[in-house]
Amino acid sequence: MVVVQPMRPDGGTYQSSLVLPAASAVAVPEGASLEEAATLSMNALTAVEALDLLDLPRGATLLVTGGAGWLATLAMPLARERGLRVIADARPDEHDAVLGHGADEVVERGDGLVDGVRERAPDGVDGVLDAALVGPAVFGAVRDGGGWAVVRGQDDPTERGIVRHPVWVRDRLEDTAALEHVRDLASAGVLPMTVAGRYPAARAADAHRRQEAGGVRGRLVLTF
To answer: Which of 39, 43, 146, 179 is 20 to 30 A off residue 172, Cα-Cα?
Structure first.
């Protein structure tokens, strides 16, 4: 199981073989296929980095946006492992799945998000992992001085002392200990490994079109 910076001069993982630092590779989770293991590393390390930056104490409340997406699906059990209370947003038909992935409570996504969160956390959540890129519209759900972990470099100004935490997974690409921890949690069944579809490398464009269409639950994998 490896993780690679896709913008590096030698290219990312769209190739049958590659050279990378030993620190960026660990054994696959116990009983997992290579395709299943491939679903984990990038998104799980992104979630780890976001949670580390937010640095919330046990018992704190975390909002995860995009609750049915793959980043959120991995972030929620990682947050629960740290003793956090997790609120996530989702469509009505996704509520059961999101609860099954580790959310303590689920609110409606969209315009009612802030009101739904405030009903469950009247003082506001302590932090938000904004996997759905909601942006400043989520600030109303966050307490004064809370944290906002952003995964696509959003640089919007905040309010009420909310602290913006830019998440760059590239900072963790050689964090062997984090990779091993993610691997061990997957081996124990704490983290899912969901292959939403397999595509031969020659059909990479088809995989991108499916991803861009939305609604993918899990990860699409290229095979060589």
So the answer is: 146
- pLDDT for 139-197, tens place per residue? 999 999 999 999 987 788 999 999 999 999 988 999 999 999 999 999 999 999 999 99
Name the pTM for this structure.
0.94
Q: What is the pLDDT of residues 29-48, one digit of tens each?
A: 999 999 999 999 999 999 99
Name residue 199's amino acid.
Answer: Y
Residues 147/127, Cβ–Cβ less than 8 Å: yes
Collapsing DSSP to helix, strand or coil, 20 comes out as coil
- Please state the domain extents for the chain: 55-168
Burial class (CB in 10 A: 0-12, 13-18, 19+), 205: exposed
- CA-to-CA distance for 34 and 40, rounded, in angstroms? 11
CA 201 to chain centroid, in Å, comes to 25
Q: Give the count of alpha carbons within 13 A of 10, CB side only.
A: 10
What is d(CA 82, CA 98) in angstroms, rounded to the nearest whole number?
Answer: 18
Architecture of domain 55-168: 3-Layer(aba) Sandwich (3.40)
